Each structure stands twice: as structure tokens, then as C-alpha cells.
Amino acid sequence: MNINKLFARAVRNWPAKVLSLALAIILFVFYRMSILESRMFFNPVSIENLNSMMPSSPYPRIIRVSLKGEADNLHSILEDDIETFVDMEGLSAPGTYKVPIQWRKKGTALGVEPLQISVEPMEINLSLDYKISKFVPLSASFSGQVDAGYNMTSYTLDPNQVIVEGPASLMGGISMLQTELIELAGHRSNFSVTASILNRDPLIVIRGDGMTEFSAAISQIIPIRNIPNAPIAVTGVMEGFSGELDIKTVNLHMEGSNRDAVEMFVLPSEFIKVDCSGINEPGTYILRVTTGTFAGITFRVDPEEVAIQIGTAGEDSQ
Predict the structure, then answer these.
(1) Which of 70, 116, 240, 266 has the smallest set of CB atoms within 10 Å of its CB?
(2) Helix ranges, 126-253 (H)
(3) Is the Cα dihedral 27, 29, 35, 39 positive or negative?
């Protein structure tokens, strides 16, 4: 009898009691949430299950993550243990899609309660296109010049082409990729450096490590000068003889390590000559044309040999 009275009393006005209990629970939850601390950081957004598709236009790559929880637990969570992503499962045609930002916990975030997680923005627009790949040649970019008096005669890149991946709508405009600027100043001999391959479009992916080996061939520039119609002197003709050259001038070619010396050289008298001191009877002879010497310059004449008619003094030369 007493049990029945107690039960009747308990269920008396039960809607009001249930409402009061629910309100108490809600107030308790709000109270707990009001005393929780907040933490905010930024996370990268990964795209999952793209299959044969790729993003074809810029999209937010970083989103804001907000955490709310008890202070001790909240600050022990590593940022990398809250992963943010969008799932493209089931999408297989080009187009623009509005997709929600999802999140999942791992590591230090597992088992932490209470923990409220929110992201901003909550969804993004993502344009997709078919993914294609192709070989693209590389070209080197330079800064400065090699030292004065030297020249870069050639260079190689290894590899000299790479495979790139990207959305079909963008790949048609990619015909070559450049390296980062390679400094030439200060070089006067062959050298090699490792250079990064520049990728100015984040929607394009370069396979491999994105590096290439640059090797340059550097050679010294040899100053060159030509003096045409340089006169030939005839020396060493024995007494009582005379000499008559078939041609009286040659072209003088000069090379040297000192540009100023080559450019300022003044041709001395009898610098180019043929020596007749070994001839002791009349006749026609082929003699070598010789030159004097000058520090830092080498000389070459054209032709290197000339014909000379040796006759007796006073005799008409042919």
C-alpha cells in the first residue's frame, strides 16, 4: 500500500518533472561548456579519394580549427592529431562541387572528453578535372655573368626533363619548366650545382624530388687580332746578291692571354721577315716566313712560306 502511494506521488505531474530534469541537464551542460577553455589553430586540408581526378582551380588549403575542452587536456593535443579533409568518393566527372570539411581525431586527441571540435569554413567549392601526365623539358635560368675574359660555352641538366601531373585544363599550357636562378658570377672554370625546378602553379605536381644537376663548361676567351697586308722584310742577303719576293705582305694573326697587349700591339719594323743568309747562289727559293716575339702573344702568318728570286746585284729581277 505504501509502495503504491509512493509510485503515485512520483508520477504525479510527471510532464513537469521530466521537463525540469531536462532543463537541469541542459543547464548543467551549458555550465560545463561555459567553463571550458578554447584553442584555435590552422590546419591543411587534404583531399581524399580523388581517383583519376585533380583540383583544377585554387581552393582553400588551410582552414581554422577550434577546440573547446578542459584546459589540461586541451593543450596536450598536438595540432597534427586533428586531421581535416574532404572526401571525393563517388565523384568521377569534371565539375565544381560544394563539399563539407570533415575532421577526425588520432593520437593525443583520442579519448579526450569533453572535446568540442569545429572548423571554418565548414564547406568549400572544389573544381575537378581529369588528371593527366606528360614529359616536360627543363631549361636553366641564370643570374650574373662569368668572370671577365671567360665564357660559358655549354651546359647540361640531369635530368633534362621531368614528368608533371595536373588537370587537363592546365596541362596544355605547360611546355617547359625553369630552374631556380643559377649564379654565374665568380666562375672561371667548369662547375656543377644542384638546382631546384620551379613550379609556380600549386595545382601542378612534379614527380621526383624537384631537383636537377646543372653542369657548366667554362672556357677562357682568347683575345684575337688580325693585321692584314703586314710587310715582309728580306734579311741576310749576301753581298753581291739581291732578293725579290713573289708576294711582299702576309696576314698576321695574333692570340694572347692579355687583351690589352693584343689590342695595343704596334708592328715593329722588320718584325716579319724571310732570312736569306743561307743562300749563296742565284735562283728561286721557297723560304719560311718568321716573326719576332712579344710577351704574352703568339703569332701566326698566312701564308707561312713565300717564293723569293735571288739574283746578282744589278741584275734585273723577274
Answers:
(1) 266
(2) 168-171
(3) negative
Secondary structure E strands in 3-122: 37-48, 53-55, 62-69, 82-87, 95-100, 102-105, 115-120
- Quote the pLDDT of residue 317: 43
Q: What are phi and psi of 73, to 5 degrees?
A: -75, -35
Find out whether 82 and 63 touch, Cβ atoms under 8 Å: no
pLDDT digits (tens, 9 = 90+) for 99-157: 999 999 999 999 888 889 999 999 999 999 999 999 999 999 999 999 888 899 999 99
Residue ranges of the chain that CATH labels 2.170.120.40: 132-220
Residue among 59, 56, 91, 53 at smallest CA distance from 169: 56
Dihedral sign, Cα of residue 118, residue 124, residue 129, residue 131: negative
**Using CB atoms within 10 A of its CB, is residue 255 exposed (0-12), middle (13-18) or buried (19+)?**
middle
Per-residue pLDDT, averaged over 165-190, amounts to 93
Grid cell of 254 as nine digits: 695574333
107: left (phi over 0), alpha (psi -120 to 50) or beta: left
Tell me what the mean pLDDT of segment 168-176 comes to.
92
Q: Judge contact between 55 and 201, C-beta under 8 A.
A: no
Top-level class of domain 132-220: mainly beta
Residue type, 16: A
The total number of residues shown for the chain amounts to 318
Which residues, including other chains, have CB under 8 Å from residue 236's CB and lie 6 or more apart?
Answer: 275, 276, 277, 278
Phi, psi of 19 (to 5 degrees): -60, -40
Ranges of CATH 2.170.120.30 domains, the chain: 224-312
- The C-alpha atoms of residue 69 and residue 113 are separated, in whole angstroms, by 7
pTM of the model: 0.61
**Domain 224-312 coded CATH 3.30.10.20:** no
Do the Cβ atoms of 129 and 171 come closer than 8 Å? no
3-state secondary structure of 112: coil
